[in-house]
């Protein structure tokens, strides 16, 4: 079944993306933009502490919802329903709406997705022509049900050089603009977008229920990278080897969300993921079993080595 892609302007979500990135320790290119966001985050944190609300669930719903819900009161109520429940949403939405409405929006004024014109249309045409096949091949290397049948791409102005997958909303936030000079030429944007879209079905119960040690989106992101690189190699878009895997994890790590760069040691992950993939590619074990094995390996990397892999990815180490 062909991949159905929809596109929307993510300018409204950009201030919340930037704030989430700053909260995760990212450095914005302009301190004049970052300083007001840090002050706003302090106000938001006061509410979260008062309400016993952890930051990660809030950002996980606030950022993708802000792409389509622009009214602060409605946005506040939806976020609180998702994080604290209906009763809390009814009693606290007005206060959260005041804070959300006060977010500094200068970061959103840097560019508009609607102004990208012909360049954006060419990019969308390229995605329509190649992304579906790339993802279908990635599904053959993992599980066809691991690949979503539809996805929404939220187009954001270039700021963080980051893209994020929000599996709860079947949505990807994607920055489009000129290729940055320090990004590896061996990692084209089309492959990066395929990797983000390929993460959107990791919350399907038959996959998610096997992941117990690590946040489901984080484990799913690492698991889908080798199949996507393998699919890209079939189309001569990239190569699938340990060095490319390491480059991709270094260059593509999101600046925000559960897979953000500050959440883990990338070098250690590269060895674990690459060793896991060699076993999986040779054995072609069912994808839920493979996900469980990767989750365990990431939880105890010191207990695994390339020369001492389990006979079965689902076996107890």
What brief labels describe this structure?
2 domains, 54% helix, 12 helices, 4-stranded mixed β-sheet, 317 residues
What does this protein look like?
- The chain is of the alpha/beta class.
- It has two domains: 11-110, no CATH class; 115-303, no CATH class.
- Helices cover 54% and strands 8% of the residues.
- It is built from twelve helices and four strands.
- It has helices at 14-23, 31-51, 55-66, 72-83, 86-101, 117-141, 189-198, 205-208, 216-234, 242-252, 266-283, 287-299; strands at 4-9, 150-157, 163-166, 171-176.
- The chain has a four-stranded mixed sheet, with helices on one face.
- A hairpin with a 4-residue loop joins β3 and β4.
- α7 packs across α9 (216-234).
- Residues 303-317 have low confidence and may be disordered.
Task: Label the overall shape.
Answer: globular
Largest sheet: 4 strands, mixed
Helix fraction bin: 40-55%
State the low-pLDDT regions, or none.
303-317
Tally of domains = 2
Q: Rg, please? A: 20 Å
Number of E-state strands: 4
Give the N-to-C terminal Cα separation. 38 Å
Spatial strand arrangement across the major sheet: 1-2-4-3
Give the DSSP E fraction (strand runs of 2 or more residues): 5-15%
What is the overall number of helices?
12
Q: What's the helix-strand series?
A: EHHHHHHEEEHHHHHH
Mean pLDDT equals 87
Q: Helix/strand-derived class?
A: alpha/beta
